[in-house]
């Protein structure tokens, strides 16, 4: 009897085993790898560069670029006095032109001394944007960078509702939550002694669009010197919490012009050619003014994005 019971149990277990499904052991899960952070980027340059009557200043700053990797910005008035094809080829081309392949330009008022800034657009081609407009944007490391055309009278204006202002707001809205900067030729404010040359209220709407988008800084030229401002709102008033820091870097080599101190100007220099080197981090940036050989003036610092 006992043997019969044991035989029955064995038969039941064999039948259950025959119908059981094989379940493979779970494979160990690999730990999730976070996406790599964007590498730091270098953005370096100046405006007001090559005067054909004397290229020594432009060559001095071009030699600085020879030793600094990264992307170059050229903030307008690049080939004096009228930005013709010949002036770009013979003057800018012989100095900063050796960095053309890595240059992001913006047009200055001297470029428009040639109708439609034709020499500028011929020289830079597609890198300068649509010749009817002259503005564009791009990504650099973790940053969104906008090149604007501050020659408002030649492009249908820069006021609220203008083509450029509407484009700028749309462009900024499509890049939320990232560090943002802009560069152009004319300053909103500067300490130049001639008010009509130093102060440009026609740019207020472009600045307001940048301010609304929490832009961190704007780099310009036009005054032939170097000047750093405290963070500003679109009226040029100090705004430590949300303001945009303005750097005037008209130190590219043309010549030097005087300054008088105005409100919110923090640092000024009128006797040194040089370039502004920006190191763009994911959530902040460093700045350094790099002087021409033989000069000692410099300016440096760091700041978080808004």
What does this molecule look like?
The chain is an alpha/beta fold and 306 residues long. The chain has one domain (41-304): Purple Acid Phosphatase, chain A, domain 2, CATH 3.60.21. The chain has 7 helices and 15 strands. The strands form 3 sheets. The protein has a 7-stranded mixed beta sheet, covered by helices on one side. A 6-stranded mixed beta sheet has the order 5-3-1-13-14-15. Strand 7, helix 5 (163-173) and strand 8 form a beta-alpha-beta unit. Helix 3 (85-92) packs across helix 4. The radius of gyration is 29 Å and the shape is globular. The protein starts with a helix and ends with a strand.
Name its key features.
306 residues; alpha/beta; Purple Acid Phosphatase, chain A, domain 2; 7-stranded mixed beta sheet; 6-stranded mixed beta sheet; 7 helices; 15 strands; globular
Which SSEs are present, and which pair or pack?
Layout: H1 2-19, E1 41-46, E2 50-51, H2 56-66, E3 71-75, E4 79-80, H3 85-92, E5 103-106, H4 118-124, E6 136-140, E7 143-147, H5 163-173, E8 179-183, H6 195-198, H7 204-212, E9 217-220, E10 226-229, E11 245-249, E12 265-269, E13 274-280, E14 284-291, E15 299-304
Parallel strand pairs: 1-3, 2-4, 3-5, 7-8, 8-9, 9-11
Antiparallel strand pairs: 1-13, 6-7, 10-11, 10-12, 13-14, 14-15
């Amino acid at each position: 009897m006992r043997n019969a019971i044991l035989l029955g149990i064995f038969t039941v277990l064999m039948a259950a085993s025959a119908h059981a499904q094989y379940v493979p052991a779970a494979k160990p899960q690999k730990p999730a790898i976070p996406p790599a952070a964007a590498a730091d980027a270098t953005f370096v340059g100046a405006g007001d560069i090559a005067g054909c009557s004397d290229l020594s200043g432009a060559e001095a700053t071009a030699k600085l670029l020879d030793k600094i990797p990264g992307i170059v910005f050229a903030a307008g008035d690049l080939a004096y006095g009228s930005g013709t094809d010949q002036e770009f080829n013979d003057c800018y081309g012989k100095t900063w032109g050796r960095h053309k392949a890595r240059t992001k330009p913006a047009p200055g008022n001297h470029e428009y001394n040639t109708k439609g800034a034709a020499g500028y657009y011929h020289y830079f081609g597609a890198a300068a944007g649509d010749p009817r407009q002259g503005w564009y944007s791009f990504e650099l490391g973790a940053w969104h960078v906008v090149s604007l055309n501050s020659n408002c009278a030649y492009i249908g204006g820069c006021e609220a509702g203008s083509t450029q202002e509407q484009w700028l707001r749309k462009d900024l809205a499509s890049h939320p939550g990232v560090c943002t900067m802009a560069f152009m030729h004319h300053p909103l404010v500067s300490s130049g002694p001639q008010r009509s040359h130093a102060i440009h209220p026609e740019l207020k709407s472009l600045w307001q669009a940048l301010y609304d988008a929490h832009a961190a800084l704007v780099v310009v030229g036009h005054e032939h010197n170097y000047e750093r401002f405290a963070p500003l709102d679109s009226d040029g008033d100090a705004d430590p919490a949300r303001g945009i820091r303005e750097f005037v870097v008209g130190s590219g080599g043309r010549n030097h012009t005087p300054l008088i101190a105005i409100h919110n100007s923090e640092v000024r220099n009128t006797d040194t050619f040089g370039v502004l080197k920006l190191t763009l981090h994911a959530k902040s940036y460093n700045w350094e003014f790099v002087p021409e050989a033989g000069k000692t003036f410099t300016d440096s610092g760091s700041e978080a994005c808004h």
